[in-house]
Design goal:
With 402 residues, the protein is mostly beta strands. It has two domains: 114 residues, no CATH class; 249 residues, 7 Propeller (Methylamine Dehydrogenase, Chain H). It contains no helices and 30 strands. The N terminus is likely disordered. Keywords: Signal.
Length: 402
């Protein structure tokens, strides 16, 4: 008996079995010449109705017949999650059917090709709510802020250097993300405070205030009285015309008491004032940053893995970053410099491990170059040449955090 071609319609239902049960539509002619009407139901794991064309049908003369049918079934599923739409197209072809006396057909898909295309739409969203503002006083020109829990309620309070009115403002955290009006502490008439830091300098577990008084050529220390208020400042000279602009606190001599590091932009040096242990400090020891270097930002951190804080400084007049290594007794080597680019005007520097190797790297805001520079730590206290990322034409970044 010669093969014959049959067209049949297949209804595809949800399910996990590829199985057909009675009745069948379409005619299959057996060896005894009988024709059977049989309805074919295929169950595959996708909801769709598919019309299939059997281009080849071969029937054996035994009780069990094997039929080879070429089927092309294309199923497209689109799933949308959030702003992402995913379309999946599945194609099955060349199916073998085996028919027994119980009219059960087993199908085997010999080819299955699945292609998936994903379209993602990105919608800009705001990470922060609209700012809430707190007055630092008319004409105050706040220049620098720091955060520390100054009243021991486990909430971060805000300290601000108010340049034009020569005071430090303290805003206490009320506990719900809002702050009290500031309480101010004088830094001296015409002192023009530029930078502020917080550290427990007298060992009572309460953060005190350290301030760089730019036009007074001194560093001021205000001791915490324990309830979020502070004593009048005690001042330490940084030298005539020194114009201190940036302060940091770190234990540089290994006595467990934070010392003061200050960038003296007018004197082209870094000053180090060692803590005597009761909240007072020695006269500063200075380290040159180079003639005309004008250091403006300083940070203390261990860059060479010897557990001693080293000094990193942004030298805006020299267009470089200086690194001074701690020798272990509170003194430092001469600086090693790393270029930030011609006329880059580096204004702010921080240190953080940005590539996950456990070593602090350098991040610098290059004001006149309108970029941020990154210098990776090589692991022995030296750094790679900087790579830069633009902050936008004319943006002139003057501060960076990490």
């Amino acid at each position: 008996m010669s093969p014959s071609a049959t067209r049949q319609k297949t209804t595809v239902l949800l399910g996990t079995k590829t199985r057909v049960s009675r009745p069948l539509t379409g005619r299959l002619r057996s060896s005894n010449g009988r024709s059977d009407d049989r309805k074919t139901t295929l169950a595959i794991p996708t909801a769709a109705t598919i019309t299939t064309t059997a281009t080849t049908m071969t029937t054996s003369t035994s009780t069990t017949s094997t039929t080879t049918i070429t089927i092309t079934a294309t199923i497209t599923t689109t799933a949308t999650t959030g702003s992402t739409s995913t379309s999946t197209t599945t194609t099955m072809s060349t199916t073998t059917m085996t028919t027994t006396a119980t009219d059960t057909i087993t199908t085997t898909a010999t080819t299955m090709t699945t292609s998936t295309s994903t379209t993602t739409t990105t919608t800009q969203c705001s990470i922060f709510s609209t700012q809430t503002t707190y007055s630092a006083g008319s004409g105050s020109s706040p220049n620098y802020v720091a955060a520390a829990d100054v009243n021991d309620d486990n909430k971060l309070d805000v300290l601000v250097a108010n340049f034009n009115v020569s005071n430090i403002g303290v805003f206490l955290d009320t506990g719900n993300g809002t702050f009290t009006a500031q309480t101010t502490y004088s830094t001296g008439s015409g002192s023009n405070p530029i930078s502020v830091a917080a550290a427990d300098v007298d060992g009572d577990s309460k953060p005190d205030i350290i301030v760089a008084n730019g036009d007074a050529n001194n560093v001021g220390v205000l001791l915490n009285t324990g309830n979020g208020t502070f004593t009048a400042q005690t001042t330490y000279s940084t030298g005539s015309g020194s114009n201190p602009v940036s302060v940091a606190a770190a234990d540089v001599d290994g006595d467990s008491q934070p010392d003061i590091i200050v960038a003296n932009t007018g004197a082209d040096n870094i000053g180090v004032l060692l803590n005597t242990g009761n909240g007072t400090f020695t006269a500063q020891t200075t380290y040159s940053t180079g003639s005309g270097s004008n250091p403006v930002s300083v940070v203390a951190i261990d860059v060479n893995g010897d557990s001693k804080p080293d000094i990193i400084v942004a030298n805006t007049g020299a267009d470089n970053i200086g690194v001074l290594l701690n020798t272990g007794n509170g003194t430092f080597t001469a600086q090693t410099t790393y270029s930030t680019g011609s006329s880059s005007n580096p204004l702010s520097v921080v240190a953080a491990d940005i590539n996950g190797d456990g070593k602090p790297d350098i991040i610098v805001a290059n004001g006149d170059a309108s970029n941020v520079g990154v210098l990776l730590n090589t692991g022995n206290g030296t750094f790679t040449a900087q790579t830069t990322d633009s902050t936008g034409s004319g943006s002139q970044p003057d501060s960076v955090a990490a």
